[in-house]
Please model this.
Amino acid sequence: MRCMLRAMLEFEPCRYDDVRPLLEQEHPGMVALIHQGELIAVYNTLDEAASDGVRRYGRLPFDLRELPAVEDRLPLRLDVGQRISW
Model:
């Protein structure tokens, strides 16, 4: 599944809660900038998101949400004869 986030943001604002599962899947470890419940953009770092939030909104309130990073889910040990495929 490819990320439709950029296309969605170009046409109309989207509610953060509506796209949160997609963001968590497609942009793990990144930071979302949210203003009045709407997703504004996604950034690589907290500093980038905060800087752009201040630039856009000044002293008005905005939220930054760190998207959870996905950990590798390889088994810690393999039983005899067990195989991994990906």
Observations:
- Residues 15-66 form one domain.
- The helical segments are 5-11, 16-26, 46-57.
